[in-house]
């Protein structure tokens, strides 16, 4: 065997070892997380944890109701996606299809710089600028609310959605676009009837990554959402203080006695976050594969 053959085998072995190591590390994290999370339910009922509406971990008896924290995470994430997805896709379309070369060369680096700003800087900006603005403009008791968290998380998710969506749109073969224009379609008709459907797989991946960024964010929501573990009334839910699951773990893990029910309850919240993220990724992968299959069948 030649030296090149041995080199290729060594590289293949190294890549295989890297893949196995990543899987093993993920498996160990799962075991660590779920082991302590499931320990809560040896003393505290699972149904009460999942359906409880009160989070009072220091009361007697303890009350570990997940619903206020789950509600806070959902409403903040939903608001962020409602803001970020249409705006992010629109910006990606503009950069890829409409902007001039010089303009695109300026916009893309600026957007990528936004992705590198630390989350605490976003949180500080939200606390100092956005929170007082919302309080004064909307005449709220406090500007620290789900709306403030949604706006800041939406801004944070924009660079991810824009960058990946722009790459997906730019990767659509030029022959497809030119064929649509040759058949008499306008530029806008070509964009939303040809280019966007062809790039939908990549755009959906961008959206799911944006959702993942919003769900897993901690510092920003901890600074601007008010951290009140209650379920606000329906009309005022977006304008009321809320607390997310991630903020709860960050706020309480440093002070909780190790091995206590409160300690295990925080791990149970982490387990729910892990499962939520996993299900989001599975759904995204299903949508991507289904659309690729349908697109291939249509062609």
UniProtKB/TrEMBL annotation:
Keywords: Cell membrane, Membrane, Phosphate transport, Transmembrane, Transmembrane helix, Transport
Name of the protein this chain belongs to: Phosphate transport system permease protein
GO cellular component: plasma membrane
Function: Part of the binding-protein-dependent transport system for phosphate; probably responsible for the translocation of the substrate across the membrane.
Compartments it resides in: Cell membrane
Protease recorded as keyword: no
GO biological process: phosphate ion transport
Organism whose genome encodes this protein: Methanomethylovorans hollandica (strain DSM 15978 / NBRC 107637 / DMS1)
Pfam families xref list: BPD_transp_1
An example molecular function term from Gene Ontology annotations: phosphate transmembrane transporter activity
Domain ABC transmembrane type-1 span(s) in chain numbering: 70-284
Classification via Gene3D superfamilies: MetI-like
The family this protein is said to belong to: Belongs to the binding-protein-dependent transport system permease family. CysTW subfamily.
Transmembrane segments: 14-34, 69-93, 113-134, 146-169, 190-215, 263-284
Protein topology in the membrane: Multi-pass membrane protein
Record InterPro entries: MetI-like, MetI-like_sf, Phosphate_PstC, Phosphate_Transport_Permease
PROSITE patterns cross-referenced by the UniProt entry: ABC_TM1
